[in-house]
Design brief:
Chain lengths: ~120, ~400
């Protein structure tokens, strides 16, 4: 295998191994969580208004829930971890109860933004 | 009239076929992070692909040789081999990202399991490549990809600050994190100039048996088609800047892209966005699978081309089939297709000089091109973009690491 291809593959693995894309500081984690909650709020509002489609709502809410759950696993700060838990729960019930999920996600977004500073 | 019609059809196909998963991911993320400030980087990238697509289409029409063929013949085995390895590595990553992207869009539309849809997507691609004539593939996926124009409608409906949009076309250092800004500049240029596009474009010119008489069609396709295709990129960035940025959303999923159309346009917007993404990404997957097979066949001197049918070019057919199989195996491991997309674009940027420098050299070779060699204008643009390509190639990996893949 040529040296250039080896170097490219190694760099790619290094990037993946370093967990590039996952925030590590509390403000960055709070910002990332607020962004997930904000997106969840948009989805929940559209669903509550009947302007989304069932499969899209279910799949996208689940993808956001997994992102929030991954982020929660990386959080050490207790207050932020509690907010992350609330976001995960709200996204889990979003397809069945979008209006309540929207309220919960909006509150979580504000709380996370306060922690982000 | 027939010729004008053919040009118009080619341009339409080029518009719909311009956007792939890399363009979608980088334009939406750039819009959600920096608003309209990075529109100028799309202009730079579109200018680059126009410049080099026109060159390699001209080389194909005059010499009947596609990019990898001409590189091998004019620049020798060693340079050709390095170019081949770099091109194939990027093609494979791009193909893996596109197939994963097709499966995600299908999942968003149907709710079915992702891995089953990966297999379905790959089987669908193989069937299309096996059964559909070249011209039909190009047009069907190009035309249906035009559904992405829903993002232009969404952008208008969102009533962006058009003054700020206009300012975005003027190059600037932006406001906010400079390293993240630089990462997006590199990504947007790389996504627009991704190498498989020129491999596919030049091989397609040979497939369609272009001659010097077709140089007008080549120029029109490259200039008008890619320019109008760039409008889709602008629409993605503007709609994300007007909808996701004010709402504090940092899009990391393909579903976030569809949300940009659903928000202002409701269910119709969502359906058109999913349809456009499905066909644009599927079309790009076909292009990159073919590009990988074209490169191998041209480098090793195998028979190649869709017009030869499968029995006439068996190693070419096996090559695209194997590339799809490897790409599916990559995404089956569970790696995130969006992550693969970002990595494929950044590694494509690193490999850009290995694709574009040989094209510039061959297009300049008067012994090879005769009176169709680059003139002053083509060389001025070619040299400008050579500097752009070299600068972005050097900066790509450091910016990716320092910006935490654009996360800051």
């Amino acid at each position: 295998v040529p040296a250039k291809a080896r170097q490219a593959a190694t760099l790619g693995l290094l990037v993946l191994a370093a967990g590039c894309g996952t925030p590590t500081t509390v403000p960055a984690q709070a910002e990332a969580l607020a962004a997930i909650a904000a997106e969840g709020t948009l989805l929940a509002n559209d669903t509550a208004e009947g302007t989304s489609l069932g499969p899209f709502t279910r799949v996208h809410a689940e993808a956001l829930r997994k992102e929030a759950d991954t982020l929660r696993a990386a959080i050490d700060e207790p207050a932020l971890e509690a907010i992350a838990g609330a976001v995960v729960d709200a996204l889990g019930r979003l397809p069945d109860d979008p209006a309540r999920a929207a309220d919960a996600l909006e509150s979580a977004e504000k709380a996370a933004e306060e922690l982000a500073g | 009239v027939k010729k004008v019609f053919a040009i118009a059809l080619g341009i339409l196909a080029a518009i719909g076929g311009f956007v792939d998963i890399g363009d979608i991911v980088f334009n939406i993320s750039a819009g959600a992070t920096f608003g309209y400030q990075l529109l100028w980087a799309v202009v730079i990238g579109v200018g680059g692909i126009i410049t080099y697509a026109e060159m390699c289409g001209r080389v194909a029409a005059v010499s009947k040789r596609a990019v990898m063929d001409a590189v091998r013949e004019r620049l020798g085995f060693g340079v050709g081999l390095v170019s081949l390895f770099a091109g194939q590595f990027v093609n494979l990553m791009t193909l893996a990202a596109e197939i994963g992207g097709v499966a995600i869009v299908l999942q968003l539309a149907s709710g079915l399991p992702y891995r089953a849809l990966l297999v379905l997507a790959a089987a669908g691609l193989v069937l299309v490549l096996w059964l559909m004539p070249f011209g039909w593939i190009e047009r069907v996926f190009g035309y249906t990809g035009l559904a992405l124009l829903v993002f232009a409608v969404a952008a208008i409906k969102l009533k962006p600050d058009w003054g700020a949009v206009a300012e975005g076309f003027v190059p600037s250092t932006g406001s906010g994190d400079l390293v993240v800004y630089g990462y997006f500049v590199v990504g947007l240029i790389g996504a627009a100039m991704i190498p498989y596009e020129v491999y596919f474009y030049s091989s397609g010119a040979v497939e369609e048996r272009w001659t010097p008489k077709d140089l007008g069609v080549n120029r029109a396709n490259a200039l008008v088609g890619y320019t109008l295709g760039g409008i889709l990129s602008f629409a993605l960035m503007i709609s994300a800047g007007a909808y996701l940025l004010p709402n504090g959303v940092d899009p990391g999923l393909l579903g976030s892209v569809a949300l940009v159309a659903q928000g202002p346009l409701g269910q119709a917007g969502l359906v058109l966005a999913l349809l456009g993404m499905l066909f644009a990404i599927s079309g790009a997957a076909i292009d990159s699978a073919f590009s990988a097979a074209y490169n191998l066949a041209q480098f090793f001197g195998w028979e190649w081309g869709k017009y030869r049918h499968h029995a006439g070019a068996p190693r070419f057919t096996i090559a695209w089939f194997v590339m799809i199989a490897i790409a599916v195996a990559v995404v089956m491991t569970g790696v995130d297709p969006i992550m693969v997309t970002e990595l494929s674009v950044i590694f494509a940027v690193v490999a850009l000089p290995l694709t574009y420098v040989p094209i510039l050299l061959v297009a300049n070779d008067r012994a090879y091109m005769g009176r169709y060699a680059n003139g002053r204008v083509a060389n001025a643009f070619g040299l400008f973009y050579l500097v752009v390509v070299l600068a972005t190639a050097v900066a790509a990996i450091p910016l990716m690491l320092l910006s935490n893949m654009g996360q800051g």
